[in-house]
């Protein structure tokens, strides 16, 4: 996989996260309150995992003790956080060498267990992890009377790339 491909996939992630949050914002806050709250919890979980792996890739401490935060941010807060975090990934991938993507990095999982992965594998995890949870969010949006976004790569490539 080339760096350009990874950057395109992160641009897709940024678009898909924004479209998902836009759909959540359109839900009535007073109907299906629990499901709407769960959509925000899942999107925040995506953000937290993105930040954890960002720290792992750079060899820094992330400070998280769980895979989500006790508080649930608003849609507006998540929009900025996810956008900025994914922008960091886009810039980081664009600035490193192909050889950097293949170097093993040791880190600790949130549960304290030892981990060791290549940056490319971590980047793939971030991309696929977000896709998995956005699918669940789309289902919750639909169950709450909303219209889930077209979270598919072909739409992104056709209309937004």
UniProtKB/TrEMBL annotation:
One of its GO terms (molecular function) is metal ion binding. Keywords: Metal-binding. It comes from the Bacteria. A divalent metal cation binds at residues 45, 129, 133. InterPro entries: DinB, DinB/YfiT-like. Transmembrane segments: none annotated. Belongs to the DinB family. This is DinB family protein. It comes from Winslowiella arboricola.
């Amino acid at each position: 996989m080339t760096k350009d491909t990874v950057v395109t996939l992160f641009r897709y992630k940024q678009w898909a996260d924004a479209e998902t949050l836009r759909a959540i914002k359109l839900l009535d806050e007073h109907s299906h309150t629990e499901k709407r709250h769960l959509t925000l919890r899942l999107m925040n979980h995506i953000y937290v995992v993105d930040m954890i792996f960002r720290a792992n890739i750079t060899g820094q401490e992330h400070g998280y003790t769980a895979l989500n935060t006790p508080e649930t941010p608003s849609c507006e807060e998540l929009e900025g956080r996810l956008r900025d975090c994914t922008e960091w990934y886009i810039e980081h991938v664009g600035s490193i060498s192909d050889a950097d993507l293949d170097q093993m990095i040791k880190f600790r999982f949130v549960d304290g267990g030892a981990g060791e992965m290549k940056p490319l594998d971590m980047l793939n995890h971030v991309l696929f992890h977000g896709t998995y949870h956005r699918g669940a969010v789309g289902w919750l949006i639909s169950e709450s009377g909303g219209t889930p976004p077209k979270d598919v790569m072909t739409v992104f490539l056709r209309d937004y790339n």
